[in-house]
User: Fold this.
Amino acid sequence: MNVLIVYAHPEPQSFNGALKDLAVSELTTLGHQVKVSDLYAMNFKAVADCDDFVRLQNEDFLKYAVEQKHAVKTNGFSKDIQEEQEKLLWADFVIFQFPLWWYSVPAILKGWFDRVFAPGFIYSRDMRYDTGGLKGRKAMLTTTTGSPKHAYTPYGMDGDIYEKILYHINHGMLYFSGMESVEPFIAWTPSHDENDRKRYLEEYKERLYHLSEVPSIPYHPTSHYDEDHQLKMEYRKEK
Assistant:
């Protein structure tokens, strides 16, 4: 299996770095092909602007999404974007490794999504979710938190991490692109205890060993929605 790890943490010696290194080591040992996009080490540009294109379709007014569509058709992306898109096409499985900052991904990773997940490449009117451009691939979030697990429950102070906090990533980015989102791996407050860090590394090793067996998050396909983008009545759960 071809595995791409998109890694976003500024400190190589961090626990996120340890999880990334473990993934590279274990997956390689298991016979998988592994590539890593270390966004901080690459000094990956997070800001979307006109420099993202070899040539502009309209040099007088930047309409970013329009220029992205044009670049898809003309092979006109900047080199850094093109390389990341090629990695995605190569991959069977994508791991996103990052610390949870302000209930989301670090800015450099958000910029990666903004610039790499281009319309025409990832999505269009008729190409999204279960028909998205990256259909046939799986994706998993591996993240760390600053608050304890019980703070992220449905009634916790920080909100349900699965249904609220990570939903916009798993559903709005990964599933939207066509990838099949699988259950995330979460290390809760790893900075607080050395024994916890050791346990998480062992748990992650086990997860990596069974990577292809990680359950998918059940999202509705586009056929379950009507022309107003509303879930059809027959697919709604009784309350």
About this structure: Residues 2-235 form a domain with the Rossmann fold fold (CATH 3.40.50.360). The CA atoms of residues 194 and 200 lie 10 Å apart.
